[in-house]
Amino acid sequence: MPLLTSDAKGVYPIAPTPFFDDGRIDTASIDRMMDFYHSIGATGVTVLGQLGEAQKLEHTESLEVASQVIGRADKLPVIVGVSAPGFAAMRALTHEVMARGAAGVMIAPPNTLRTDDQIVNYYRQAVEAIGADVPFVLQDYPLTFSVQMSVGVIKRIVDELPSCVMLKHEDWPGLEKISSLRALEKEGKLRHISILCGNNGLFLDYEVERGADGANTGYAFPDMLVDIVRLNAQGDREAAHDLFDAHLPLLRYEQQPGVGLAVRKYILMRRGVLSSAAQRKPAAPMSAVARTEVDHLLARLAKKDPRAGKLVG
Amino acid sequence: MPLLTSDAKGVYPIAPTPFFDDGRIDTASIDRMMDFYHSIGATGVTVLGQLGEAQKLEHTESLEVASQVIGRADKLPVIVGVSAPGFAAMRALTHEVMARGAAGVMIAPPNTLRTDDQIVNYYRQAVEAIGADVPFVLQDYPLTFSVQMSVGVIKRIVDELPSCVMLKHEDWPGLEKISSLRALEKEGKLRHISILCGNNGLFLDYEVERGADGANTGYAFPDMLVDIVRLNAQGDREAAHDLFDAHLPLLRYEQQPGVGLAVRKYILMRRGVLSSAAQRKPAAPMSAVARTEVDHLLARLAKKDPRAGKLVG
Amino acid sequence: MPLLTSDAKGVYPIAPTPFFDDGRIDTASIDRMMDFYHSIGATGVTVLGQLGEAQKLEHTESLEVASQVIGRADKLPVIVGVSAPGFAAMRALTHEVMARGAAGVMIAPPNTLRTDDQIVNYYRQAVEAIGADVPFVLQDYPLTFSVQMSVGVIKRIVDELPSCVMLKHEDWPGLEKISSLRALEKEGKLRHISILCGNNGLFLDYEVERGADGANTGYAFPDMLVDIVRLNAQGDREAAHDLFDAHLPLLRYEQQPGVGLAVRKYILMRRGVLSSAAQRKPAAPMSAVARTEVDHLLARLAKKDPRAGKLVG
Amino acid sequence: MPLLTSDAKGVYPIAPTPFFDDGRIDTASIDRMMDFYHSIGATGVTVLGQLGEAQKLEHTESLEVASQVIGRADKLPVIVGVSAPGFAAMRALTHEVMARGAAGVMIAPPNTLRTDDQIVNYYRQAVEAIGADVPFVLQDYPLTFSVQMSVGVIKRIVDELPSCVMLKHEDWPGLEKISSLRALEKEGKLRHISILCGNNGLFLDYEVERGADGANTGYAFPDMLVDIVRLNAQGDREAAHDLFDAHLPLLRYEQQPGVGLAVRKYILMRRGVLSSAAQRKPAAPMSAVARTEVDHLLARLAKKDPRAGKLVG
């Protein structure tokens, strides 16, 4: 499989890890999910991220999930989350998934980093550990990781580490960060990297207008994200916003920390992608009231997007 | 003026502090803002919160702003933010504003609190400082203050401190917290307190359904918030959601930390309430691109809510 | 090997993991280190703690180190650090080391925990994962983990989880916490648990007087810690303080976060226990000036404790 | 009074604020304390720091305390802590105390700062607020403020803001930071600033050897700190360490966060400087056991330093 490059565009869904109710990995759902991603025009996929409950998998399970996803990915590049408390485990997992055909890895910063130097130094050491030939995605997600990367820090990392090919942009607020990075690029002061946006797509409508290349997030309607990127590329601005706004009430609900994963898995189950919404423990379950709220949001969405209609039996 | 009670309902806008471009306080705008709040059916108002740039005012200015708001409030109860690094300053400001006719005060936790005992103890000491006869609002806003209050901690505070009459609910996610508090109340295990929601109203559509009494936040269309509370009370569920969803793209944009205040002041200026969008330093300004995005959001909103249309000249 | 119980007393050194300069594990030094611990009267040993660079080991290496230590421990109980970002990895490592003869495991809290309920719930889930039959050590180390456990939280964990048999006490300041826990025990409100103190022993002189059962830390003169516990038990208060005070300048130096491990390994190398002071990357190295300071501290200590004299020159 | 310059040396005790048991400010003790500082050879004094319970004073009280200290300081330069949640309050207090004869101000960073740019920008704005003509002390105290300033950040601040004349060095560990700053100075890359050390002097023995100019901390035997600086300047290295080591057991005890202030005030009371050890609420009191421990430490110290003997009645 080809390696990830800084030209990556479009939508790389963050794949959840499907489980049966008893906690076993549901391999049939993995295949169905990958077929779904192919069918909607995803341009890549990321596995073993936070959303993928990576921390609840044993090492061999992580490898199995990654291997199955890679095997079913056909030509889609697969990014594997390899964040780990130590570089030894990060290196081991990286080498194993690259050997199986991964296109690159994603590395989140440990939440103890504070100063600019600490952040840059961490990625320097990570690259030393995994090898400078492995493309990596810089995950900038201060809301969850408590690590704040200024534009200057991202520039230092991009300048110093050629294997950094993508920014998973999840700063919040983050619109100006995209503009600043693209302005540096325009001025010839920063090489081009791919910027794919996370945060469940909460600002994707304007992020693509600011210069982002697409989305890298777990919203349960990745087909809508694909549409947004396409409509924006075509210049159909208002059509993009109309579709986005129709999804925003649900998207916002799904973006809530903790309970968000339960919502996503529930919708993916209702869409026929997953056979169960089960998470491994520890999990933030969805209350009965929350489920009726999600059903309500889906029913309202169905009036505007037939893809939600199909599942409202 | 009557004191704040646990029966408070409706919408208490968080008032910004109007400045001229040179940093002086714009008292004419304060009057206009208060008249605006009266005209839209607000049931109270909160001044000198975070949104009110309280930390950028000198002590005498804080008093002047609070006094003017109270003077123009007529029968609307006025809550004054008195959060301070020390209890001496908190007590002093509390006594001064209560003497001028404030209905109660709002107290945010210092962001160094961690354990349940530390949080409860802090509010115990705060009440000891300001006096048990001053009604206070418990501000639960972990996203900004990094202090996490469990339902158990809120219960302890409500049980122990009778002057706690309102929860400014800004936990995120927070829907289950409202349900849990109201369930405790139903079971007779917790006295009733008013729950008004913040976070710019990002979940107000479902928060009122969960048992919240209204909103206490700074969205630049507080008239919409008033409508949501009213429509929900009338049982017009879908109408409430239709209106809410029309505002959600803008509301979400405004809810961004940092830049959000600039957006709010800009819209309030465009609505004719404030004469300037100026903030005192340090301020997160709104970029030129951001302003075009807000204009775009307003133009789109105007198609659904005539109140946004008026200002799109 | 017998399981760890709440009667544990004395000194359980936190064992470093010996490396060669090229990063390989130095098994001969592990044997020598274990013989050293036997010779000085240690009553147990802890491996794969933070100090043991556990996060820099691959899974199989962790198992090998733990196995060798257990094999050489004779009758000394061995506690294995099993803290992990997810319960799957924690359970796997626990089962493997218990099968090899570990006496119990040590679990540190993830640094995202804030409320009392979150902390108690985490340990509840951890016990569910590793099994209620595995004795575990509760690590209370807010300086490093940013998790603050009140006396009430510790009581809840001890009450609810019978397999919690020891507190690794590293709160700072922490003297009153020991007194509070022992007072609860005296009043019959808390079952007895072993309290062994960390923080390099910085307050061990008074901790044992307050009711601690000993030390569980990495100071490079664990023989001194053994003496302190013994002298205190014998009632030789001033002799205990004289010895402690002689070591305090060095002990304080070694207790510095980051550089502390380099100092410990350097001294253990000079004492002939380790063949190298090497750490795996990422490591905080000791500067040339720091080394002269440590040599200076050792030279001064040698005037009062012959054990430091042996290695000087 | 002359302004603070980057040539400041020696010991600037951090003055506590003396209270009577009923919470009133004890002005006679302020005079006695200032006379004591003169008598021991202090070269300056800092008031209204954290240790001075600045946050528990009302604005007018802060001014009164600062004024009295300045009035009694004779030629000793007085630094006033002006850290505040907003720049308006910081500017107001700064102008008032400078008008009364303060030599400079000390500014701690708000604990929300994370990135290098945020830290530099904060001090840039602070200087804009207080005026570029007011000398200020940069307080680098990550243990309390959670703000980590790298050497690079300090350099940026010193380079950009000429009114930064002193670093209150309280990083921990911090020895290498002193060496790095002095190395930059030697290489001509950084102008000279005064470095006075805090953290109760826990590493002062080596800090002065590394290039620090003295101490700026609250240890209850500032006369000992003066001796250390003098002995080091004279080249009496071992005498300096002997004296320091004699004090270290007590110094370490006093350095504990929270309870440390109670210990300091208690010892200053026993030394006849303060008439009471009272703190304003909220205060971490000293338990009865802790008091016996402090008495024990003083009794042991008295065997080596007659200044402790005098008070052991």
TrEMBL record, chains A, B, C, D:
InterPro entries for the chain: Aldolase_TIM, DapA-like
Gene Ontology CC entries for this record: cytosol
Top-level taxonomic group: Bacteria
Q: Which SMART domains match?
A: DHDPS
Q: Keyword annotations for this protein?
A: Lyase
Extract the SUPFAM superfamilies matched here.
Aldolase (SSF51569)
Q: Which GO terms describe its molecular function?
A: 4-hydroxy-tetrahydrodipicolinate synthase activity
The family line of this record is: Belongs to the DapA family.
- Supply the name of the protein: Dihydrodipicolinate synthase family protein
Q: Tell me the lineage of the source organism.
A: Bacteria, Pseudomonadati, Pseudomonadota, Betaproteobacteria, Burkholderiales
